[in-house]
């Protein structure tokens, strides 16, 4: 059974090496201590109530030995941990910057060519990347197990992650700084593309990469987008009340807004709410939803509306 | 010698008032014990629900918000109501005067006041359960400023509890300086007292910081003062510095008394002097001092500077060495001994083994590159529980069994207690060992939901709670139903002073203050000249 995720960045090798080293040292120490515990218990088991025992109080040689050996082992583990960390914190000169924003409970990525993606980060293989990150609200933490990288995001200061992906694939992205009710839904994917694929993604629309979604029914596409774009973090589909209105039985229902007006939730209302979410706030909910303008195209918005229609 | 007609501290006065207004350190110790026991059961039940929720991914028995409340409740209750006051206030109160040959602590009324403050703090804390906080026990800003739950009440409770902790610390320090019996020199002081002394230092020096921090948090929430919220020009990382400046030393407030217990139990059931008395005594102090300088290792990925990270990593490894020394000293105490596997001894041996695992996995987290991967994953959860349960709670259980005859004057059923031990030991490892692997695989902590690939390890972990739960119940049953007959003053033939009087001890401990003439762990026969 695996006990480490796929190793897909240059930093991962160093982490794994240090982790293995610490594991080997730990396992040997545990076996040694466990063995001595059991051996002593068996060998020196009490036989009579007046067993003679020697009054040994100390032993300078042994004590020096078990001070020096752990000290050396600690120094070794420290050095490896330090050396690899040192490499990780230095940004290569040719690194490509990507801006990352964490907001409850969505990741937004802004690329230098003006592209913007939600919850899906696209990076080319073997290219040093520097993430420049900040939070729009509470603390978040950017964690990609396959890259072994993690860094908190905060509101008053930029933080950074350097990595170079070494293996094509799609990897999990987690938020690892507790950020409230939907913390465990603040998920994303990192897509490591070949240089050719990345170029395609960069100059074409992002759709070319996810073209698999082209020929599925609209409501099914909407269902995929619901999870993929982070709607799931706030909007339930089973009627349970979260920090945002549930989508169950939403379509066609009458909505009362904080400004006293009301409207029936039809296609145009839902589209407006996706693009300009703070325009019409349903009573009882705060202005927390980000705008999806520029992140979803018309077909995708229609797909989400069709999906909402199926939730009766 | 023992005059059975004499009253003991348990018989000395009946009814609520005789306990609530008592200044007897032993009664106060027992009251602490009962109080922390109740909170332990409540907080353990919360963890039981947390694990049950994780039987399957997605929503199981509770909602996401309830889950967040449950882990906050579990963490904050275990930390502030059980484990911080835990061993020090209960067994510390009961044992320190008995061990140093005093009739009571030096400020008995202050001692009672500390207990009342504890009850007051705990009541405020429980009152907060009307709208329980969902911030995690660490109250990280700005979430804790933003959260709509009752953060103020819970922090106010912790603030009051802090005063109880500080006053108890002062009381113990002064007691050990001023009330040691003639001949009870510092190098004859039982190691439990040394550990309690180091713990008290930490309580007095570190607790004010968390008090101030929580006051700032209350000020920010109530009056909108911008200490920590970036929106108001504050710095959320400053909160983490303040919080861990207390909460890291607090880890040693939790573990040092348990180390003291192990240092008492090992010699008695090995019939050998403790190996390396001075090394253990001084390493307690060394650990206490260094523990003030390692708080930043909780913050390697918080955004603090690289240089600061490196410094904290070095100091963190430095604290590992005195800890390793202690483990080997306890181990070597058994060498050529006459070992009796009593229940208390079993818990102590389990402590040594589990604490070793807890300590070694700490090295992973101290190593910078590895911590970047493991921080805030289940690996940390497992590491912390190996230290806190495998260490402190197993030490606490060792104490419960070891001083049981002294405290209550009766014996428990060793056989049943050992079965309970086996269940607790197995259950504990089944819960937490898989969490190390979950962590290295990248499962983040405080996650209501999880990816399907983690399901089998989560399930295994949950099954462990059922085993440990049965173990706890059997242990409680065993301890609440003593076997007939009296324990006598010294059933284990200990040479320590607390075993020299009747069990349970008389209200004022000693008829005449004893004079100490020998080292405390004077077991075995002297060898003229060691080869």
What report would you give on this structure?
- The complex is a heterodimer of chains A (312) and B (531).
- Chain A is α+β, with helices and mostly antiparallel strands and 312 residues long.
- Chain A has three domains: 10-44 and 56-89; 96-208, Sandwich (Immunoglobulin-like); 213-310, Cytochrome Bc1 Complex, Chain D, domain 2.
- In chain A, 34% of the residues lie in helices and 21% in strands.
- Chain A is built from six helices and twelve strands.
- In chain A, strand 1 (96-103) and strand 2 form a beta hairpin.
- Chain A is elongated, with a radius of gyration of 27 Å.
- Chain B is mostly helical.
- Chain B has a single domain (25-499), classed as Cytochrome c oxidase-like, subunit I domain (Cytochrome C Oxidase, Chain A, Up-down Bundle).
- Chain B is built from 17 helices and no strands.
- In chain B, 62% of the residues are buried.
- The model of chain B has no long low-confidence stretch (mean pLDDT 92).
- The interface between A and B is large, with 86 and 96 residues.
Protein traits:
heterodimer; A: 312 residues; alpha+beta; Immunoglobulin-like; Cytochrome Bc1 Complex, Chain D, domain 2; 3 domains; 5-stranded mixed sheet; 6 helices; 12 strands; 34% helix; elongated; B: 531 residues; mainly alpha; Cytochrome C Oxidase, Chain A; 65% helix
Report a brief summary of the structure.
The complex is a heterodimer of chains A (312) and B (531). Chain A is an alpha+beta fold and 312 residues long. Helices cover 34% and strands 21% of the residues of chain A.
List the helices and strands and how they pair.
The complex is a heterodimer of chains A (312) and B (531).
Chain A: H1 10-43, H2 60-89, E1 96-103, E2 106-111, E3 116-118, E4 120-124, E5 128-135, E6 140-144, E7 149-153, E8 159-164, E9 169-175, E10 187-193, H3 195-203, H4 218-228, E11 254-256, E12 262-264, H5 267-275, H6 298-310
Parallel strand pairs in A: 1-5, 4-10
Antiparallel strand pairs in A: 1-2, 2-3, 5-8, 6-7, 6-9, 9-10, 11-12
Chain B: H1 16-20, H2 25-53, H3 64-83, H4 86-100, H5 108-127, H6 143-146, H7 151-178, H8 191-223, H9 236-270, H10 277-290, H11 306-333, H12 343-366, H13 368-374, H14 378-402, H15 404-408, H16 414-441, H17 455-480
């Amino acid at each position: 059974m695996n006990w480490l995720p796929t190793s897909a960045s240059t930093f991962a090798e160093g982490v794994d090496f240090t982790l293995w080293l610490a594991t080997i040292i730990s396992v040997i120490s545990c076996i040694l201590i466990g063995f001595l515990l059991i051996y002593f218990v068996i060998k020196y088991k009490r036989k009579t109530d007046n067993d003679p025992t020697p009054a040994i109080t100390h032993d300078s040689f042994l004590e020096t030995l078990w001070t020096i050996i752990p000290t050396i082992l600690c120094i070794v583990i420290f050095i490896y941990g330090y050396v690899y960390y040192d490499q990780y914190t230095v940004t290569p000169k040719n690194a490509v910057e990507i801006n990352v924003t964490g907001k409850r409970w969505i990741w937004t990525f802004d690329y230098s060519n003006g592209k913007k993606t939600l919850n899906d980060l696209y990076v080319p293989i073997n290219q040093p990347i520097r993430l420049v990150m900040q939070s729009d609200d509470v603390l978040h933490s950017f964690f990609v197990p396959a890259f072994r990288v993690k860094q908190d995001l905060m509101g008053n200061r930029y933080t950074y992650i350097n990595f170079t992906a070494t293996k094509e694939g799609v990897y999990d992205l987690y938020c690892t700084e507790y950020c409230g009710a939907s913390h465990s839904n603040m998920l994303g994917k990192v897509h490591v593309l070949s240089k050719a694929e990345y170029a395609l993604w960069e100059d074409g629309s992002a759709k070319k990469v996810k073209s698999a979604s082209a020929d599925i029914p609209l409501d099914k596409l909407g269902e995929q987008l619901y999870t993929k774009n982070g709607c799931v973090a706030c909007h339930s589909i089973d009627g349970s009340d979260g920090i945002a209105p549930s989508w169950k039985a939403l379509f066609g229902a009458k909505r009362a807004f904080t400004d006293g007006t009301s409207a029936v939730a039809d296609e145009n209302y839902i589209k407006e709410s996706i693009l300009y979410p703070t325009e019409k706030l349903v009573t009882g909910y705060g202005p927390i939803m980000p705008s999806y303008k520029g992140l979803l195209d018309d077909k995708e918005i229609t797909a989400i509306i069709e999906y909402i229609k199926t939730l009766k | 010698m023992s005059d059975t007609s004499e009253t003991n501290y348990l018989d000395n006065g009946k009814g609520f008032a005789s306990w609530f207004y008592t200044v007897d350190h032993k009664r106060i110790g027992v009251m602490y014990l009962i109080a922390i026991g109740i909170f332990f059961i409540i907080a353990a039940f919360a963890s039981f629900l947390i694990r049950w929720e994780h039987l399957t991914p997605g929503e199981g028995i509770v909602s996401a918000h309830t889950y967040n409340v449950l882990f906050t409740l579990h963490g904050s209750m275990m930390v502030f109501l059980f484990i911080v006051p835990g061993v020090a206030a209960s067994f510390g109160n009961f044992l320190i005067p008995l061990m140093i040959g005093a009739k009571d602590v030096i400020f008995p009324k202050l001692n009672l006041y500390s207990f009342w403050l504890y009850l007051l703090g705990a009541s405020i804390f429980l009152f907060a359960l009307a709208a329980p906080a969902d911030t995690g026990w660490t109250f990280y800003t700005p979430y804790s400023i933003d959260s709509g739950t009752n953060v103020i009440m819970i922090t106010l409770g912790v603030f009051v509890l802090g005063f109880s902790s500080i006053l108890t610390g002062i009381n113990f320090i002064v007691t050990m300086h001023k009330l040691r019996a003639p001949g009870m020199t510092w190098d004859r002081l039982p190691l439990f007292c040394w550990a309690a002394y180091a713990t008290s230092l930490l309580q007095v020096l570190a607790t004010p910081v968390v008090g101030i921090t929580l006051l700032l948090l209350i000020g920010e929430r109530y009056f909108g003062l911008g200490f920590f919220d970036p929106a108001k020009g504050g710095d959320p990382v400053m909160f983490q510095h303040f919080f861990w400046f207390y909460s890291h030393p607090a880890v040693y407030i939790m573990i040092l008394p348990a180390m003291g217990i192990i240092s008492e139990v090992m010699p008695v059931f090995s019939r050998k002097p403790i190996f390396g008395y001075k090394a253990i005594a001084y390493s307690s102090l060394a650990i206490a001092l260094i523990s003030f300088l390692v708080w930043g290792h909780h913050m390697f990925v918080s955004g603090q500077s690289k240089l600061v990270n490196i410094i904290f990593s070095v100091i963190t490894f430095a604290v590992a060495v005195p800890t390793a020394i202690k483990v080997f000293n306890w181990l070597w105490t058994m060498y050529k001994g006459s070992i009796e596997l009593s229940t208390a001894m079993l818990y102590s041996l389990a402590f040594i083994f589990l604490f070793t695992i807890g300590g070694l996995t700490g090295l992973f987290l101290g190593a910078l590159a590895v911590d970047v991967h493991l921080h805030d994953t289940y690996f940390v959860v497992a590491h912390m529980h190996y230290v806190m349960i495998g260490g402190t709670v197993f030490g606490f259980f060792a104490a419960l069994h070891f001083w049981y005859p002294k405290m209550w004057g009766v014996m428990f059923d060793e056989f049943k207690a050992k079965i309970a031990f086996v269940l607790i030991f197995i259950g504990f490892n089944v819960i937490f060992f898989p969490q190390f692997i979950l962590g290295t695989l990248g499962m983040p902590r405080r996650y209501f939901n999880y990816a399907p690939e983690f399901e089998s390890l989560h399930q295994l972990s949950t099954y462990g709670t059922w085993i440990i739960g049965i173990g706890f119940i059997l242990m409680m049953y065993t301890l609440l139903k003593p076997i007939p007959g009296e324990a006598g003053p010294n059933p284990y033939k200990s040479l320590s002073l607390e075993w020299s009087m009747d069990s349970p001890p008389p209200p004022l401990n000693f008829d005449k203050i004893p004079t100490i003439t020998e080292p405390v762990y004077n077991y075995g026969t002297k060898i003229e000249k060691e080869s």
